[in-house]
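Many introductory courses stop at the sequence. We go one step further.
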Amino acid sequence: MVRQRILYFFLIFTGVVALLIAGTVSIVNVSAADNDDLIALGRDIFYDTHLSRPVGQSCASCHDPADGYAHPNANIPTSQGAIQSRYGNRNANSITYAMFSPELYYDPNPSPGVMEGQYKGGLFWDSRADTLEEQAKGPFLNPLEMHNPNKNTVVLTVRQSNYADLFKSVFGASAFDDIDIAYDNIANALAAFMRSPEVNPFTSKYDFWKAGQAQLTKDEYQGYLLFTGSAKCKNCHPEPYFTNFGHQNLGIPRNPDLPYYFLNPNLNPEGENWVDLGLGAFLRTIGVPEMEAAMQDGKMKIPSLRNVAITPPYEHNGYFQTLGEVVMFNNTRDVSGAGWPAPEVSQNVHRHMPPMPGTFGQLGLSDLQVDQIVAFLQTLTDGYQP
């Protein structure tokens, strides 16, 4: 079992090939032509606004292609649900390049900027899903998101859709006979779409620059040098995916504007006292011992920075509105007089020990250098035309 591998730390990260294998084991066996149909089916499901209760919300509502397949409204920290008075408790992740994340595992080896071991992989901010198939099943039944009462409702909607014949063409004439199998296949189709080049195009200016087909401006290039050099961004966001798939508690402040705090007690019993423990909370649910789980409290999945310029707001609770704010927080979090509020979760905050200038939270970047890093991050947006 995957969860047992987490507990005993057996799984080792072995590169892109392993990522691709791990990411596709639950896809049905289909030919290349059939796979095109599977992707097309997944696309139909992804954009279907009838798959929520009440109708009106699709997967694309919270993962808008125009916004890097992420939360499309920078004016609110988290996405609005199908029931419009409800909101999720976390900012919706971008699904671009999520296919490269391995299943959750523990890497005991030190890495740049992280002297202790680190949990890596998984999906969602707390890595509670191991595969895109597993991830795809969650929002349909989440009362804060698409609000379907059960799997049968979702399957019946697909069965009555204008792409039902395509569903049966891909999965067989009896595709809707077994509710559990049909629901799994809905997730399989969505996962195939999320693995497609349409969602993972590698068409940013950065990609063309690396291929020798574009030139960075002076500020973009200086930002790249800072990103990969003295600002140490690459420690957690290495090329080419711009994430190491790990988890960190950066000391992000509580966001007082999080709509989740103000939901009815039956949806959020803790109200404004709710604290997001992230990975630590999830590990408790799968039986990781308390001492180990507590060491992960407040840690969130390190996101890919691809398309980051078009995916505000930022961090798990949408605390930041702009990239400049995020970079400046990384730059000055621990500088006396910088004025940042206290972390939401004060334990396990990522700090260089002993604290010293030039490390996260006191990087010593000038305003110009912050702007240059932002300029480089803007080159990571897909759809560039050389």
